[in-house]
Specification:
46% of the residues lie in helices and 13% in strands. The protein has helices at 2-5, 20-25, 42-55, 73-78, 95-103, 124-138, 142-148, 162-181, 183-187; strands spanning 13-16, 62-65, 83-87, 107-113, 149-153. The N and C termini lie far apart (44 Å). 30% of the residues are buried.
C-alpha cells in the first residue's frame, strides 16, 4: 500500500530487535522475574526472523536494528536481512566478522549521529571520526566499506525535538555526502 501511494520511494522494512542478543544468551527474564528463559539456538532465531523477512516480499529489503552491544551479525544475515543496523557508540563488534559479513553482502546502517541534541551540532568531521576508526579496524578496502555503509542517527529520532531531528538529518546527509564524495576525509 505504501509503495502504491509513494511510487518513487524505495521502501525498506526495519525490524527493531533490541533483545536479540539477550534471547540468544538466555538473559530474558521470565514473567515472574525470578528466572530466565533458556537461550534460543541461533539457527532457530534466524529461521524465525527469516519468516518475517520473507513476509516483506522480494522487493522490500529488510534491515534489522539492534541497539545492544553484541549485535548478532551472523543471525541477522542468516535470516536473509539485507542490512544490520546498530549504534556505533554501543556496539562491540569483531572486525573480522564485520569484514566477513560485508564481503558476503550484508549492508551496514551505522548510527553515528546523536539521536538527541547535544545543544550545538557537532562538525561533520567529529561525527565521522568514530566511523573512521571503525573502518580502520575492519581492514577492508575503503571502497567496499563505503558501498556497504549508510550513515544514520544512533537510535532513532522519536524522542528528539523537531529542531534536533532536522539538525540530525542534516548531519546524516552531510556526513554521507562527505563519505561518498571524499571518503579519504572520513578514513584519513
Amino acid at each position: 500500500d505504501v509503495q502504491r501511494r509513494v511510487p518513487r520511494a524505495r521502501l525498506v522494512l526495519q525490524l527493531d530487535e533490541p533483545s536479540l542478543p539477550a534471547v540468544l544468551a538466555g538473559a530474558v527474564r521470565t514473567a515472574s522475574g525470578l528466572g530466565r528463559v533458556p537461550a534460543v539456538d541461533p539457527t532457530v532465531v534466524a529461521a524465525a526472523l527469516r519468516d518475517v523477512v520473507a513476509a516483506a516480499g522480494d522487493d522490500v529489503p529488510v534491515a534489522v536494528h539492534c541497539c545492544a552491544a553484541d549485535v548478532p551479525l551472523g543471525v541477522i544475515q542468516d535470516a536473509g536481512a539485507a542490512v544490520a543496523s546498530f549504534a556505533l557508540d554501543v556496539a562491540v563488534l569483531d572486525p573480522a566478522e564485520v569484514a566477513e559479513r560485508v564481503e558476503r553482502g550484508l549492508g551496514l546502517w551505522v548510527g553515528i549521529v546523536p539521536s538527541s541534541g547535544p545543544g550545538v551540532a557537532p562538525a561533520v568531521r567529529e561525527v565521522a571520526d568514530p566511523l573512521r576508526r571503525f573502518f580502520h579496524r575492519i581492514g577492508l578496502s575503503l571502497e567496499s566499506l563505503v558501498a556497504a555503509t549508510t550513515v544514520t542517527p544512533t537510535c532513532g529520532l522519536g524522542a528528539a525535538s523537531d529542531g534536533w531531528a532536522r539538525t540530525a538529518l542534516g548531519l546524516v546527509r552531510r556526513t554521507a555526502r562527505v563519505l561518498a564524495e571524499a571518503p579519504e576525509v572520513v578514513a584519513g
